[in-house]
């Protein structure tokens, strides 16, 4: 093959192809992450599948949670929030709810009770490892929850499969575990003395102002492994129900572990996600290519 | 230079690949979901198998059955519908068995559900004895009427005593039944099961016991001959527990001529022992309390099948047992468990002790005379929570269990000679040999092929120019060397160029050709023309085909670095000669 009067041998082409492929793979690898709940994590513990669903549903990523849009027609999904949210964010969520919007918070940490308190909710997350005889996978942490009462998010969904969940106090139960469940206080995964069988609420609902707050006591219900499991767990239907619950869908990216990424992947994903930066990057690339071609012609 | 860079990049990539692969060479499996099964917050579902999902729906009806069946069972006993009661009892037993299986499967052996199961099993024992006792009571009533009509006072007394025993047993059973209330009712409440049926069974049970008691009290004064009884009997102490001895002694008053007689001692209306009285009519028996149920037991003696003593009784109290298990020892995949079962300071002998790991029963052993037990259990490699349990069934002892021990059974090391290593596994060996053979064959083929390949001359080979009209070479003769123009032959006077050593004579030939064509076609800047441009600009139809043919070959040799076949080389030389022949012929 010749290019601009120069003949390029086949070996050069093959080696060049390998180098380009290697660089592309390296960039692809570096742009990935293994962080739990990260939307950039395509492994079993990431939430890339959920965020693909959000993209398909026309959802908007929201970084500043203190200024949430929505006039009673919006749903904010906040998966695995970071602890220690500033007061203006909590105030923003409370204001968002009071305008008649809907918020779904998925967290299994008691640290996020501050967020619930700040949002004006009486629901509380209780740190505990719930174990159930009714399990989807052959592991004590795989707990099946069943609909409790009528709710738009649970109607027609036979079960929700959780992955090492906590439980909730307060609010109206939407999904509860079966009676054959217990809080594994001694961590041995066996029902022992002092561990009582009882139903635990894992999805709870509360009306705040004109809006509705849902709390899910296990963000792991939305990880890739749970949404793509075979046979299907039913969690994908639950996620789809949340995403289609209101006309406007917002996905919280500020103070959420779903936004976690490595330093390089952060840069790459920033370029990918911000249109202005993406345009600037493409322009720079094209300019560099043009300069290279012009320089090469002059030298020839 | 470019080729060297490409080669260097290729080698670098190859080394990188080998390093990356080498880092994982020690592991036979690069990745599996199981190796990435757990994170801090969750478990990898890909590493898990799907479980059966209808366990709740199996558990709750079973618990409901166990709570509600006694209602109909006791009611049927009260109605004396013993056939239906037997059927209920059978169903009750099946439910308990299923629950027992589920409790073990679900690893709930230490849970409140396990307590419920034990209460259910105790109730089964109580209800079975209630059914048998009530049936027997009915028989006794029939027999009493018959013997009374026939005037057989001895049999009437015997039946009366047995009735008294039954009455006391029923009272004990009722007391035991009430003891299970807490566990049964609290479980029913937790499982949101209607317990009205069970509560009704308690009322019916009490009515059955009261009915028997009142009938006994009504017939008690009719016991024949007791006032004139010639056999005295004393039982002491009145209350005992495991390991105590109950003294039963008395005297036969009407001993004839000082000759000893025989009396038969009955405990709970069952013949216990035959005693010989002394010359003074005295007899004595010490009963060691070991396998007597907790509760009241009746005692009487009979002489000659017709003379009865008074009916006496003693009460056995249930006391706690203590089960001590020493640290288990793991030897060759077996776990040696040793321990002691005692009641207070007394060893419990001939008692069954269960060895359980993670709630599953592994073995049952009997204690010796000193209350010790030893069990050797073979266990699969793994970690277990081991404990010993004594259920107390058949003993006036409460259930007990030892403190648990965490036991780790290691994976046994492969015995020498049985090692499944790379070197001895026949399949691995076969595969390795196969690869070595293939490599050898490949290398041999390559070398052989390379040896016979035609190596193109790196420098110009002087070939004599063949005269016109040369005859073709006949078959079998060696093919002639490529014919190169005479000016390249040694001594032709042309100086060797710098590139001759790499690309042979071709650059020189090309320059000659380009010069001649440019001159003939009056081309401008002839030295800047590439072979392809020369071909494109050559307008002379006579030579254009040959110029292009030469240019094509020249590109392959010089630019692509290819080695031409002999025929192609000859073709290029022929083209060169033709072009120069035409053009130089014009000049001359």
Mean pLDDT reading of chain B: 80
Rounded to an integer, what's the Rg of chain B over CA atoms? 54 Å
Question: Structural class per helix/strand content of chain A?
Answer: alpha/beta
Rg for CA atoms of chain A: 24 Å
Level-1 CATH class name of chain A: Alpha Beta
Hey, which two chains have the biggest interface?
A-B, 50 and 44 residues
* Global morphology of chain A: elongated
Poorly predicted parts of chain B = 418-422, 453-483, 487-502
Biggest sheet features of chain B? 6 strands, mixed
Indicate the topology:
The complex is a heterodimer of chains A (300) and B (588).
Chain A: E1 2-3, E2 6-7, H1 10-31, H2 48-56, E3 60-62, E4 74-79, H3 87-98, E5 102-106, H4 113-118, E6 124-126, E7 130-132, E8 142-147, E9 160-163, E10 167-169, E11 172-177, E12 181-183, E13 201-208, E14 211-216, H5 224-227, H6 235-243, E15 248-252, H7 263-273, H8 275-299
Parallel strand pairs in A: 3-15, 4-5, 4-15, 5-14
Antiparallel strand pairs in A: 1-2, 6-10, 7-12, 8-9, 8-11, 11-13, 13-14
Helix pairs in contact in A: 7-8
Chain B: H1 2-23, H2 55-78, H3 82-105, H4 112-150, H5 153-179, H6 181-190, H7 196-220, E1 231-236, E2 239-240, E3 245-252, E4 262-267, E5 270-276, E6 282-288, E7 295-303, E8 307-308, E9 312-316, E10 322-325, E11 329-331, E12 334-343, E13 346-347, E14 352-357, E15 360-366, E16 372-378, E17 382-390, E18 400-401, E19 405-409, H8 426-452, H9 500-503, H10 506-521, H11 531-537, H12 541-559, H13 566-587
Parallel strand pairs in B: 2-9
Antiparallel strand pairs in B: 1-3, 3-6, 4-5, 4-7, 7-8, 7-9, 10-12, 11-12, 12-13, 12-16, 14-15, 14-17, 17-18, 17-19
Helix pairs in contact in B: 2-3, 2-4, 2-7, 3-4, 4-5, 5-7, 10-12, 10-13, 11-12, 12-13
């Amino acid at each position: 093959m010749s290019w601009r009067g120069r003949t390029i041998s086949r070996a050069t082409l093959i080696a060049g192809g390998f180098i380009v492929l290697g660089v592309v793979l390296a960039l692809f690898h570096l742009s990935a992450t293994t962080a739990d709940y990260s939307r950039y994590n395509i492994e079993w513990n990431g939430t890339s599948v959920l965020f693909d669903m959000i993209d398909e549903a026309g959802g908007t990523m929201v970084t500043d949670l203190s200024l949430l849009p929505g006039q009673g027609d919006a749903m904010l999904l906040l998966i695995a929030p970071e602890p220690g949210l500033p007061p203006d964010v909590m105030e923003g969520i409370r204001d968002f709810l009071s305008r008649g919007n809907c918020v779904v918070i998925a967290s299994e940490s008691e640290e996020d009770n501050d967020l619930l308190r700040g949002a004006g909710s009486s629901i509380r997350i209780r740190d505990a490892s719930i174990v159930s005889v009714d399990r989807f996978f052959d592991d004590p942490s795989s707990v099946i929850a069943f609909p409790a009462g009528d709710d738009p998010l649970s109607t027609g969904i036979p079960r929700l499969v959780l992955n090492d969940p906590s439980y909730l106090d307060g609010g109206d139960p939407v999904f509860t575990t079966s009676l054959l469940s217990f809080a594994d206080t001694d961590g041995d995964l066996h029902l022992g003395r002092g561990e009582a069988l009882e139903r635990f609420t894992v999805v709870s609902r509360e009306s705040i102002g004109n809006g509705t707050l849902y709390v899910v006591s296990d963000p792991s219900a939305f990880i890739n492994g749970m949404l793509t499991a075979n046979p299907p767990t039913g969690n994908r239907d639950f996620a789809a129900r949340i995403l289609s619950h209101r006309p406007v869908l917002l996905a919280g990216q500020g103070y959420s572990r779903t936004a976690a990424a490595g330093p390089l992947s952060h840069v790459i994903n920033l370029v990918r996600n911000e249109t202005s930066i993406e345009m600037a990057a493409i322009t720079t690339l094209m300019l560099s290519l043009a300069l290279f071609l012009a320089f090469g012609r002059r030298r020839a | 230079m470019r080729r060297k860079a490409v080669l260097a990049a290729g080698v670098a990539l190859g080394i990188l690949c080998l390093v990356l692969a080498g880092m994982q060479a020690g592991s036979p499996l690069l990745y599996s979901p199981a190796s990435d099964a757990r994170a801090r917050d969750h478990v990898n579902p890909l590493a898990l198998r799907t479980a059966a999902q209808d366990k709740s729906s199996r558990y709750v009806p079973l618990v409901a059955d166990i709570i509600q069946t006694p209602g109909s069972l006791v009611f049927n006993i009260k109605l004396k519908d013993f056939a239906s009661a037997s059927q209920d009892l059978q169903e009750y037993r099946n439910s308990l068995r299923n629950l027992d299986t589920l409790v073990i499967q679900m690893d709930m052996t230490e849970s409140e559900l396990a307590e419920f199961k034990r209460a259910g099993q105790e109730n089964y024992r109580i209800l079975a004895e209630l059914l048998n006792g009530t049936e027997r009571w009915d028989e006794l009533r029939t027999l009493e009427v018959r013997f009374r009509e026939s005037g057989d006072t001895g049999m009437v007394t015997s039946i009366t005593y047995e009735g008294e025993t039954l009455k006391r047993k029923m009272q004990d059973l009722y007391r035991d039944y009430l003891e299970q209330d807490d566990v049964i009712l609290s479980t029913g409440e937790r499982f949101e099961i209607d317990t009205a049926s069970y509560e009704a069974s308690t009322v019916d049970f009490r009515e059955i016991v009261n009915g028997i008691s009142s009938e006994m009290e009504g017939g008690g004064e009719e016991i024949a001959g007791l006032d004139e009884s010639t056999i005295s009997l004393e039982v002491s102490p009145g209350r005992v527990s495991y390991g105590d001895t109950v003294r039963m002694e008395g005297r036969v008053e009407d001993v004839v001529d000082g000759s000893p007689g025989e009396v038969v001692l009955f405990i709970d209306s069952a013949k216990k022992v035959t005693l010989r009285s002394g010359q003074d009519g005295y007899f004595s028996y010490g009963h060691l309390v070991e396998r007597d149920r907790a509760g009241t037991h009746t005692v009487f003696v009979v002489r000659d099948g017709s003379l009865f003593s008074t009916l006496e009784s003693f009460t056995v109290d249930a006391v706690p047992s203590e089960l001590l298990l020493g640290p288990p020892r793991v030897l060759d995949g077996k776990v040696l468990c040793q321990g002691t079962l005692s009641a207070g300071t007394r060893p419990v002998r001939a008692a069954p002790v269960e060895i359980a790991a993670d709630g599953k029963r592994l073995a049952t052993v009997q204690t010796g005379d000193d209350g010790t037990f030893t069990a050797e259990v073979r266990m699969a490699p793994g970690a277990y929570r081991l404990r010993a349990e004594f259920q107390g069934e058949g003993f006036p002892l409460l259930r007990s269990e030892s403190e648990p021990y965490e036991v780790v059974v290691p994976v046994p090391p492969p015995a020498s000679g049985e090692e499944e290593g790379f070197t001895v596994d026949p399949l691995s060996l076969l595969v390795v040999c196969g690869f070595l053979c293939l490599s050898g064959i490949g290398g041999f083929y390559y070398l052989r092929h390379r040896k016979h390949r035609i190596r193109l001359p790196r420098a110009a080979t002087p070939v004599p120019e063949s005269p016109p009209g040369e005859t073709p070479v006949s078959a079998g003769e060696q093919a002639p060397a490529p014919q190169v123009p005479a000016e390249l032959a040694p001594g032709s006077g042309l100086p060797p160029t710098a590139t001759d050593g790499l690309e042979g004579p071709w650059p020189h030939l090309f320059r000659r050709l380009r010069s001649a064509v440019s001159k003939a076609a009056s081309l401008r800047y002839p030295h800047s023309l590439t072979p392809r441009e020369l071909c494109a600009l050559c307008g002379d139809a006579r030579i254009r085909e040959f110029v292009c043919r030469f240019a094509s070959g020249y590109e392959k040799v010089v630019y692509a670095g290819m080695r031409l076949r002999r025929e192609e080389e000859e073709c290029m030389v022929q083209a060169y000669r033709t072009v120069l022949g035409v053009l130089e012929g014009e000049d001359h």
